[in-house]
Amino acid sequence: MPGRIQSIERAAAILRLLAGGARGLTLAEISRSLDLPKGTALGILRTLQHVGFVEQDTESGVYQLGGSVLRLGTRYLDGNELRTRALNWADSLAGRSGESVRIGTLHEAQVLVVHHVFRPDDSRQSLDVGSLLPLHATALGKILLAFDPHAASEAAEGTIDLPGFTRNTITDLESLQQEAIEVRNNGWAWELEELVEGEVAFAAPIWDRRGTAVGAIGIRGAVERLCDHDKPRMDQVSYVRDAARAISRELGSTPW
User: What's the CA gap between 191 and 155, in Å, rounded?
Assistant: First the structure.
């Protein structure tokens, strides 16, 4: 069985120490508190700075937690609160739509499925919680690209891969950005056989008390059930948007 990696344990110890220091800590304080040589502590701090987990004040020289690690913590809290608040509404949406329901959040330029309700029939289905879905080929992902500033900036920087899954998948950045504009204007997103042949999905954004899009909720099903002549069934879109509004209110969002 592989052993533990000492450098990672030391990095974690520094992060925990900085989390408890409201005003930041100097190199000497970190070194002394963790009984680490200054050179070792400095090397770890510089690495953590490079990945954005630690920041150093240019005037005082003290170290504190960086924006990247704080963002990770916020995502964790958002995902857990989101799932807890959405349970009843996701069940209700599955019942109204007759389709499976997924709730997703942004995770490393992908959609992390944090909750999944099976389609309410006797068909064989597999649980998708914990699955990662592509941003550009899913309705959930398009919502995040349109309304999540982190996803939008990653797309603008060209750091998101755009592989093709079907002949309908958007694989160029310009088309994807145009799609995001349309999603923002409409307030909802859909995919038509862009991830899986024969499947359609609709999604809408979930907002928190800060006015931040913390996730998306959507339904997925067969083309013949969710479309009329390749056009989305607007009654199903309305069910999704209603559920998104209800969950947003649970999270403290101002009604709109």
Answer: 18
pTM comes to 0.69
Q: Within a 10 A sphere around the Cβ of 166, how many other Cβ atoms?
A: 15
Look-up of token digits 């309908």: 168
Cβ 42 vs Cβ 12: under 8 Å? no
Given a contact cutoff of 8 angstroms between Cβ atoms, the answer to whether 203 and 139 are in contact is yes
Instruction: Give the model's confidence band at 52: pLDDT under 50 very low, under 70 low, under 90 confident, else very high.
Output: confident
Q: What is the mean predicted confidence (pLDDT) over 106-123? A: 86
- pLDDT, position 21: 61
Q: Considering the domain delimited by 71-250, tell me its CATH architecture.
A: 2-Layer Sandwich (3.30)
Mean pLDDT (the chain, rounded): 87
Under CATH, what is the fold of the domain 6-65?
Answer: Arc Repressor Mutant, subunit A (1.10.10)
* Adjacent-strand bridge partners of 118: none
CA 246-249-252 angle, to 5 degrees, is 160
